[in-house]
Specification:
This protein is α+β, with helices and mostly antiparallel strands. It is about 20% helix and about 20% strand. The protein has a 3-stranded antiparallel β-sheet with strand order 1-4-3, with no helix packed on it. A two-stranded antiparallel sheet has the order 2-5.
């Protein structure tokens, strides 16, 4: 299982998010869906594939988020 930050919904927000992470030891690299798929290219993704975290097989009946992309995080599970 993996998650990755994406800037796709608002590419212009990357600078602001980077400022938040700058004083920490963490790093921020928001990537596009295509870039993330390239990183996991050696894996077969389990359905539903690469999806926003709130849409990736929620446990039980979960209310649909109107703006799932506002989580800015994509998730997936891959098999070799």
């Amino acid at each position: 299982m993996f998650t990755h930050i994406t800037q796709e919904p608002e590419p212009e927000s990357g600078g602001d998010v980077g400022k938040v992470f700058k004083p920490t030891s963490g790093h921020f690299w928001g990537r596009s869906r295509a870039e993330i798929l390239g990183i996991v290219a050696g894996f077969d993704l389990v359905e539903p594939g690469l999806a926003y975290t709130s849409q990736w097989r929620p446990d039980g009946p979960a209310p649909a988020l109107a703006d799932a992309e506002r989580t800015f995080t994509l998730a997936g599970v891959g098999r070799r």
